[in-house]
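Hey L., structure's done. Input below.
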Amino acid sequence: MIYFDNAATTKPDSVCLGKAEKYLTDQFYNPSALYAEGYNLHLDLRGARESILSHIADKNDYALIITSCGSEADNQAVFCAGRRGNIVTTLGEHAAVYSAVTEAKNRGIDVRFAKLNSDGSVNEDSLLSLTDDKTSLVSVIHVNNETGAVNDINRLAGKVKKINPHAVFHSDGVQAFGKIPYKLSKDIDLYSLSAHKIGAVKGTGALIYRKKMALKPFIYGGGQENGLRSGTENVFGIKMLEYAAGNVYAEIQENYKKIAAVKQRLWELLDKNIFTLLSPEKGSPYILTVAASGVRGETALHAVNDRGLIIGTGSACSSNAVKRHSRVITACEIADSLADSVLRISFCHKNTLEQAKAAAGILNKTVGELKEALK
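Output:
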């Protein structure tokens, strides 16, 4: 079986699992407990947070809140920073941001959506035209999870701050963390990430925040995470995130080049009479989005699955929504004949050129047969 749906989730790294196992068995204590074993875990988690943060941000300027997932981190950013004036975001956001700002709109907040370019990146002119002195929050996804388009969030945040220095700038970095080489600029206030996209386990995420922010809790209770996110800490999940992040960042440049070659090989081998490229040329190497006109994406997904290839059709977090086309693909103004045929092929740093070749063979044969059957 070839697994090419890594934008949905990745397989947990076995080495990281081995290292973190003791936090499920021997070191199972509550980090908030007063006895020595609990306090030692508290210190261990402090080091883990600093390690995770160090890969993309300066610990003198930023801190980190552990959450249950990227979606929770996105929701904390929206509901804690977008409480007044207006919120500006994009039509290309992940459901965790899009649904959260929609709820904020239901509560009386003015929500404004910037248009997308055809590749899924935000239209800069549209974003900046919607931002004004009443804007409390601007949220722009770092890597579009459906097309792989990369937004230059550092540059965009700088331009937003020139319009309104008091606006909070947030970015959903779930598809960028551990994959795209970058460092957060001083203009980024909030940044979300998720553990299970980089070889850690589901159930852990994080919200990076600028220390000077007056951030509010989203979950109240025992006052964990310096009072910003209550709930007994998931020590195993946090340590898995620390170890997995250390692994991917140790070779992030090498992995970027390797997976760019895997993506390029797969696209080169796909039959251009069947498939149309939707991903931008300079997008994330970890996401290749194509369409096969005339064949429904879901039909193709199941057919290639039967032949040993696992891929996606878009965001797994919105697969239960009642819709014909993805709202993100629709916002890219892609023709209906292609929008119904989208396939998202996504990689992790362990994928190979040989897998790309085999996957291309399965896709060409299977989708080609489906097209013939529809003639």
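The chain has a mean pLDDT of 94. The chain is about 40% helix and 15% strand.

-- N.
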